[in-house]
Amino acid sequence: MGSIIWYFIMLLCTFVFFAIGYYAKKSKVPMHFYSGTEVDPATITDINAYNKENSIMWNTYALWYLISTFAHALSPMLAVIMLMLACTLGIGILIFAYDKILKKYSIR
To answer: Does residue 1 have a pLDDT over 80?
Structure first.
């Protein structure tokens, strides 16, 4: 029963992050990262490229959850460690990657 719950929750998280990536890719306005903020379209040089890189960032993050989901079959401890890394180190990497994307496409 515990494995079924693990797979359900992890696949749900994976789906959410892939959905954010898909939304970013299809969006016509610049994708924001931080809650409650918006990116002014006038400050972005290429909105499509900016959103595409945001999409790649979120989809890469979602892969950590997907891999962790199926790592559970090999070793539940490995899966938990991967999840902990995604939730801690991964968040820091997301922030760093987003700031890099924002700087790359911001009008200076």
So the answer is: no
Total residues found in the chain within this entry: 108
Residue 108: band (very low, low, confident or very high) from pLDDT cuts 50, 70, 90: confident
Whole-prediction pTM value?
0.91
> Count of CB atoms within 10 A of residue 89's CB?
11
CA–CA distance, 85 with 37 (Å, rounded to integer): 26
Distance CA 50, CA 81 (A): 32
Alpha-carbon gap, residue 27 to 89, rounded angstroms: 27
Q: What is the pLDDT of residues 4-35, one digit of tens each?
A: 999 999 999 999 999 999 999 999 999 998 87
- Whether 55 and 18 have beta carbons less than 8 Å apart is answered as no
Nearest to 94 by CA among 58, 50, 62, 68: 58
